[in-house]
Specification:
Layout lengths: L3 E4 L2 E3 L5 E7 L8 E7 L6 E6 L5 E3 L7 E6 L4 E6 L8 E9 L2 E2 L6 E5 L2
Parallel strand pairs: 2-11
Antiparallel strand pairs: 1-3, 3-8, 4-5, 4-9, 5-6, 7-8, 9-10, 9-11
């Protein structure tokens, strides 16, 4: 089973940037489709972005043009670069891995707070 660990969250002012990381110990992520979800207090978990094994990407409309997902297979890590952050981006961010019918369990996530 793939165990993912998210990091890189924090407190940032509106308009600022953060880069989230998602790493796995003991698993090779290059063969997995990887992505990010987020969950704000009182809301359902919301899909944010995905990257395929060959590097194709897709984004939720709410983050398109501001967020960039990427992967470094040599480092076994997936990133989410978040620019022009807005208060409504405040949430716990979770990464996931999918291959065939397998989907990784949710990790602890990383908190992103956008506030002045």
């Amino acid at each position: 089973q793939v165990q993912l660990v998210e990091s890189g969250g924090g407190l940032v002012q509106p308009g600022g940037s953060l880069r989230l990381s998602c790493a796995a110990a003991g698993s090779i992520l290059s063969s997995y489709v990887m992505g990010w979800y987020r969950q704000a207090p009182g809301n359902e978990r919301e899909w944010v972005a995905v990257i395929t094994t060959v590097g194709s990407t897709d984004y939720a409309d709410s983050v398109k043009g501001r967020f960039t997902i990427s992967r470094d297979n040599a480092k076994n890590t997936v990133y989410l670069q978040m620019n022009s952050l807005k208060p409504e981006d405040t949430a716990v961010y979770y990464c996931y891995a999918v291959r065939s019918s397998y989907r990784s369990p949710w990790g602890q996530g990383t908190q992103v707070t956008v506030s002045s």
